[in-house]
Design goal:
magnesium, single chain, disordered C terminus, 5 strands, alpha/beta, globular, 51% helix, transferase, Rossmann fold
């Protein structure tokens, strides 16, 4: 019943999940979408489909700028959708143009601490930006660069180490109504 009310209040507005890699956007997103009866899109998966290769290969063969161009293109298409939960890449906030797309929906920042992200990303060989000697230093630098940009989100959701993804989705659903403007009836206009 509460979910029906939230769906009605959202009126099909997209939810964009932002945050650092390892924050759980691709894990929480489908759970949130399912509870809302929304579609789920993982922007990184779509970028790979458009490019016809893995993100690591895009970085290696074409460079980060090409990846960011593809990311912006895919985000533009996703922003035109409705009733969708969209997990974005961690660096989506770096381009001003991307914010114009993100503002087509409700932007939710899954905020993980450096310690949490380190624990989740240790040994991850799939993420090109993390293929460095000192993972903690790299993550710390990326976090410092991106936190002020993530802070522009409509909602900041601080993550805890042992939080269940389903519980996170539930807490987000409980928080969303407070972010939405009350609907005016025709009689009030």
């Amino acid at each position: 019943m509460a979910q029906d009310l939230i769906k009605e209040q959202l009126q099909g507005v997209n939810l964009f999940l932002i945050g650092m890699m390892g924050s759980g956007k691709s894990t929480v997103g489908p759970l949130l979408a399912e509870q809302l009866g929304y579609r789920f899109f993982d922007a990184d998966v779509l970028i790979e489909r458009v490019a016809g290769k893995a993100i690591a290969d895009i970085f290696a063969e074409d460079g980060e700028d090409t990846f960011r161009d593809l990311e912006t293109e895919v985000l533009g298409h996703l922003a035109a959708q409705t009733r969708s939960v969209i997990a974005t890449g961690g660096g989506v906030v770096l381009r001003r143009q991307n914010w114009s797309y993100l503002h087509h929906g409700l932007v939710i920042w899954l905020d993980g601490s450096l310690e949490l992200l380190l624990a989740r990303l240790q040994g991850d060989e799939a993420r090109p930006l993390l293929q460095v000697e000192n993972l903690e230093e790299r993550l710390g630098n990326l976090l410092a660069q991106r936190q002020p940009l993530y802070a522009q989100a409509d909602l900041r959701f601080p993550l805890q180490a042992d939080q269940d993804p389903l519980a996170i989705a539930g807490e987000l659903l409980a928080t969303i109504p407070g972010l939405l403007k009350p609907q005016c009836s025709a009689e009030q206009n």
